[in-house]
Write a structure and sequence with these properties.
Elements: H1 10-16, H2 20-24, E1 58-60, E2 78-79, E3 81-83, E4 99-104, E5 123-124, E6 130-133, E7 136-141, E8 146-152, E9 156-163, E10 166-174, E11 183-193, E12 196-204, E13 210-218, E14 223-235, E15 238-253, E16 257-266, H3 270-280, H4 286-301, E17 304-307, H5 311-323, E18 329-330, E19 337-339, E20 345-347, E21 355-356, E22 358-359, H6 360-363, H7 367-374, H8 376-393, E23 399-401, E24 404-405, H9 414-423, H10 431-442, H11 453-459, H12 462-470, H13 481-501, H14 505-514, E25 522-523, E26 528-529, E27 546-548, H15 559-562, H16 570-577, H17 580-592, E28 598-601, E29 609-610, E30 613-614, H18 633-646, H19 663-673, E31 675-676, E32 684-687, E33 694-698, E34 704-710, E35 718-724, E36 727-728, E37 733-735, H20 736-740, E38 743-750
Parallel strand pairs: 27-28, 34-38
Antiparallel strand pairs: 1-3, 2-5, 4-10, 6-7, 7-8, 8-9, 9-16, 10-15, 11-12, 12-13, 13-16, 14-15, 17-33, 18-21, 19-20, 22-23, 23-24, 25-26, 29-30, 31-32, 32-37, 33-34, 35-36, 35-38
Helix pairs in contact: 5-19, 7-8, 8-9, 9-10, 9-13, 10-13, 13-14, 16-17
């Protein structure tokens, strides 16, 4: 497999050099392997994208089912073509819009049936003839003997193809293609010159109504035949009408002739797509665009400089940091226009104001906290974009996609993203307005939400009514009652925190009480969080290992994983479970219990098992740091070390669960540096086990925060003492403000825990 090759000789010395000037010149992109996570259930893609870019040109190797969520899976050996929108690490599939495929000879385009993962024009390929690095992808298509190369700007893609000698070379532009075979409607496809083609469609899938237009310009004139004939077929045994909306482009080529294609997309209109191309790719210089993309990535990656002799961990780290910058994605055209969550066209104050793909159930935990450190300006934009969606649609999103509410997952986790930003200094919007938006998500009110009835039901489930009315959610009235109740309690604590910060005492008192709602679910007889019915009776029978995916009292987990979710009140949770000794005993048992999961449909998301701890899914991500709260930090250090070295690898199967739009990688980035925020909204970091000798976080105004791990090695995983700016810390915690003012955290490591 061809991948980015590490610099050798002098270049390696530059990366490992001791001087600041040397590190500034390093190419951190050489440590990124975009194939990490493309195997297993990571659901990442290898194609080029700029940090938080609108467009993601990438190869598609399969069309539907769970491991087609990104369109690419490393185990496959054929490519359907190169579409221009992709999701990174999601557990639900969508996108795969505007597919382009080079061809030679007769062009085949017939429909092959719903069970087929391959298009008629798919080509075999080999990983030995495939390369990916930040901002660049290439592969040799065996069927056509064509080399394909892709690069991108923020809103446009540039393709370069090297054809053999052939009188029937060409391209297929497939407008009807989409991942998960969503319903494509209102399709328009038009040739506007002998080098240009445009199109528009509406797609109904995970996003109920995705509008997307495109503009393509080719460096070589072509003849064009547009196929737009509806055909009747079957989809899962039911009648289904499919439109063959495809353009067949043809021309003759000489041996090794290069043909380039510019592609722009827009959710506004075709003209927006065209402007995005013309402004961002004015020339045909592929190499300059690819170099610019690499440089932009290098600038992002060098916000964190690491020094270590562990080359593999460097690659895992910088690939993780790379994955944190794919979503959320830019949603404004170059002229500032965008399609709002109300379906209307708006114009933003700047052309980088509105974003999409908010996987909030996942990313509130680590991704957004990471942004508050390494790119607070971006995080401010993301918060303001969330607030704009609230203004347009009537409520903050839960999981926003392509300008659509999706009501996917549980909780109302735009709230902790907003509150965490505010508690760390966000001042772009008045605190009263922020509180108003947060309260809208917490109170049961189905009115004035601009969305379908189905979406309104998901955004405003009856569980909020019961939470506010009786203090808990009965399992016989609402699915996933325990998980929802626990997350609501945390979300409500965030609201109380914001209310207290702005001096709203009444709201603070009400939501401080609601934040204790997690206590309703703890069953002392079993030692687990457990569902109870409307009459207050426990759900029986009870099995803490039981999982019926999205159809039980929990969400993508079991009682084993969910019992520990009260990040806002760990002291209260300790007391609830029976005091420190009992809490420690129960927490220890989590990591030593049998990993078996029972049930009729065990959630595939419960993965990355250490006992009953499931690192492959988000509910577990804070748990290893709970030992710091009970005076046993060496257990946190040991477990962090185990996870960093056994759950992340430099290969396609390098993630133990879905990447989830950067959350899995953000966890690694923070913990590899040596700390983690257990409770977003409380700007406190818990210290774990740094794996690098030295980490430098480059902050605004040329400030730096440096973490130095003395005597660090694989065996020396235990913290002996910690000094912040020379002052010995009495506990393994420090503040967000300590980072942002710049300074130095020194951690002395050893091979055994210090005496307590």
């Amino acid at each position: 497999m061809k991948r980015t090759k590490l610099l050798t000789g002098l270049a390696l010395l530059i990366l490992a050099g001791c001087t600041h000037s040397a590190r500034e010149n390093a190419f951190y992109t050489d440590y990124v392997n975009p194939f990490i996570g493309t195997g297993g259930h990571g659901h990442t893609f290898p194609g080029p994208v700029l940090p938080h870019g609108m467009i993601q040109p990438s190869p598609d190797t399969r069309i539907y089912q769970w491991d087609a969520c990104s369109g690419y899976h490393y185990s496959d050996n054929s490519i359907n073509g190169f579409s221009h929108t992709h999701l990174s690490g999601t557990g639900v599939g969508d996108y795969g819009d505007i597919l382009l495929m080079p061809t030679t000879g007769k062009q085949e385009y017939q429909y092959l049936g719903y069970d087929s993962q391959k298009t008629a024009y798919a080509s075999d390929f080999s990983h030995e003839e495939e390369e990916a690095r930040p901002g660049y992808y290439s592969v040799h298509l065996k069927r056509y003997n064509v080399k394909a190369e892709l690069t991108a700007t923020k809103r446009a893609a540039l393709h370069r193809y090297r054809f053999p000698e052939n009188k029937e070379s060409g391209f297929i532009v497939d407008l009807d293609y989409s991942l998960q075979r969503q319903e494509n409607a209102n399709m328009e496809l038009e040739q506007i010159s002998d080098t240009e083609i445009v199109g528009w469609k509406q797609t109904k899938g995970w996003a109920e109504k995705q509008d997307i237009g495109f503009y393509m310009k080719f460096s070589k004139p072509f003849t064009c035949k547009i196929i737009d004939t509806p055909i009747n077929t079957e989809r899962e045994g039911k009648p289904f009408v499919m439109n063959r909306s495809k353009a067949l482009l043809q021309f003759a080529t000489e041996n090794d002739e290069e043909v380039l294609v510019k592609v722009g997309i827009s959710a506004v209109d075709i003209n927006g797509a065209r402007q995005n191309v013309e402004k961002e790719i004015p020339s045909w210089n592929f190499d300059s665009i690819a170099t610019a993309a690499q440089n932009e990535w290098n600038n992002y990656l060098k916000t964190i400089e690491i020094e270590s002799n562990d080359e593999t961990s460097k690659k895992i780290f910088y690939t993780a940091l790379y994955h944190t910058a794919i979503h959320p994605s830019l949603f404004t055209d170059i002229d500032g226009r965008y399609r709002g969550i109300d379906g209307l066209i708006h114009r933003a104050e700047t052309d980088e104001s509105i974003y999409t793909v908010y996987s909030l159930w996942d990313t509130f935990r680590a991704l957004h906290p990471l942004f508050t450190i390494i790119d607070s300006e971006l995080n401010d934009k993301l918060v303001m974009s969330l607030m704009q969606k609230y203004q347009e649609g009537g409520i903050l999103p839960m999981w926003e996609l392509a300008g659509n509410y999706t009501a996917t997952m549980i909780g109302y986790h735009a709230v902790p993203v907003i509150v965490d930003a505010y508690m760390k200094g966000f001042d772009k919007i008045d605190g009263q307005e922020l509180l108003k938006a947060c309260l809208r998500s917490a109170e049961y009110d189905t009115t004035s939400i601009i969305a379908s009835k189905r979406m309104i039901g998901g955004l405003m489930p009856i569980s909020k009514y019961y939470k506010n009315k009786i203090g808990y959610i009965p399992y016989d009235k609402e699915n996933e009652s325990v998980a929802k109740g626990l997350e609501y309690a945390y979300n409500d604590w965030c609201i109380a925190t914001l209310a207290q910060a702005i001096g709203d005492t009444a709201t603070y008192e009400r939501y401080k009480t609601l934040a204790n709602g997690y206590k309703h679910y703890y069953d002392t007889s079993t030692g687990f969080m457990r569902g109870k019915d409307i009459n207050g009776k426990w759900h029986t029978p009870f099995n803490p290992r039981y999982s019926d995916h999205r159809n039980d009292d929990y969400c993508e987990g079991t009682a084993w994983q969910w019992t520990w979710f009260a990040p806002h009140d760990i002291e209260g949770l300790i007391e609830l479970i029976g005091g420190q000794e009992k809490f420690t005993e129960r927490l220890d048992s989590l990591f030593t219990a049998d990993s078996t999961i029972d049930g009729p449909l065990v959630s595939a998301d419960i993965s990355g098992m250490i006992g009953q701890y499931a690192h492959g899914n988000e509910p577990s991500h804070h748990i290893v740091h709970l030992y710091n709260y009970i005076g046993q930090p060496w257990k946190t250090q040991q477990l962090v070390d185990t996870i960093l070295y056994t759950q992340y690898f430099d290969n396609p199967n390098g993630l133990s669960g879905n990447e989830d739009c950067g959350q899995m990688s953000a966890w690694y980035v923070l913990n590899a540096m040596g700390f983690y925020q257990v409770c977003p909204g409380a700007p406190i970091y818990s210290i774990g086990r740094p794996i690098f000798d030295r980490v430098t976080i480059n902050l605004p105004d040329k400030k730096k925060f440096t973490i130095i791990a003395h005597n660090n090695s694989r065996t020396n995983k235990y913290v002996q003492n910690i000094r912040l700016d020379g002052v010995l810390l009495e506990s393994p915690f420090f503040m967000h403000s300590d980072i942002m003012k710049g300074g130095q955290l020194e951690i002395e490591m050893g091979n055994t825990p210090p005496k307590q």
